[in-house]
Amino acid sequence: xxxxxxxxxxxxxxxxxxxxGGSDLRNWRCGFGLDFRGNxxxxxxxxxxxxxxxxxxxxxxxxxDDEKPLESSQAIDKVQDTQTSVFHKDLNLxxxxxxxxxxxxxxxxxxxxxxxxxxxxGAYSEAAALKAYPMCETVPCEDFESAFKAVELWLVDKxxxxxxxSVGGSVHRNYDLLLRHRLHIVGEVQMIVNHCLLGLPGVNKxxxxxxxxxxxxxxxxxxxxxxLGVIRVSTDDTAGAAQMVARNGIRETGAIASARxxxxxxxxxxxxxxxxxxxxxxxxxxxSREPVIPGMVRPYKTSVVFSLEEGPGVLxxxxxxxxxxxxxxxxxxxxxQKNRPLRVVDxxxxxxxxxxxxxxxxxxxxxxxxxxxxxxLGHLQEFARFIRILGCYPMDTNI
Length: 399
Prior knowledge:
This protein is of the alpha+beta class. The protein has helices at 42-45, 74-81, 124-132, 144-152, 172-180, 215-220, 222-228, 238-248, 259-265, 314-323, 371-380; strands spanning 4-6, 9-11, 114-118, 137-141, 158-165, 169-170, 184-192, 196-199, 210-213, 231-234, 253-257, 268-271, 281-288, 300-308, 329-336, 342-344, 354-356, 358-364, 384-394.
């Protein structure tokens, strides 16, 4: 019987299910030198050899509810109602964002990598895509889920989406979508954010009464906006705010967006590095239909998600499987499970004492090609009711 490679683990093709995104290690059982239920045997732990992966059973996670769109304020209505056009380019020449309903897309016979991102031309996600693939064709998408679906439907080759930033924290929506869709993380991009205050030609920043941008960008610039004394208006994305200012031509309205957005939409940069923390960094994930083959030549990172069995100290035991093998954790995120949000603490309490049941997302700095990483995940299975490998990929060390 032939063997087939799945990531860094060899399994029988008859045991691989048709849905190939992510690995469920539910039935991966190994003998370990550390038994949290009994004695700490460090001598045996040092001689561990990983068992074979016996089964890859993919378990669907109930999708989370879509987030409600932000409500528009009267100020943004005023911008949209004004029809003064001072835009120096034809907006119809810009690519239209893909939506979740799109089912076809022209391709160029593979001459270029097509990379989906959320937003329109000039978005920070587009800049991240160009950093990862300088010669790529960027494809704008209407929302995060449309970018996931564009990869699944072969409309594009990759997707680059934000997952966290050093000021606003995690992008929870994309964590939830990683479980809903069967894509693999194949890389990461880290970028220093340079928020620029943009305005129409001939306008000074003191002339502004309203500033448009994405809520996260507005929060990054909270102190500087307070000093300026303007009204903040939320939009879907930063580049969209720049486009709106350029299209409607209200001199008292500015936008916070990238320098590239200013160039695309014909706006002036009234102030650079407008954010409160000039060293803020945003981390993006690169998603693909197929995983990359893990290596050991360069630093690798592995992302997993798991849920835990009941019991005292179970989270400590789960995280200890990495520490005992010298594996550093670079990220841990918890999200309540939608399909089973509450768990009874004590049956004797007649079900009145309950707490949230969580999924834990963990990034650890090791390659799945390393036995220590395989052993750690096998050991984790002793405490987990569900494990899925989201991706093993090279770390981005260039900022």
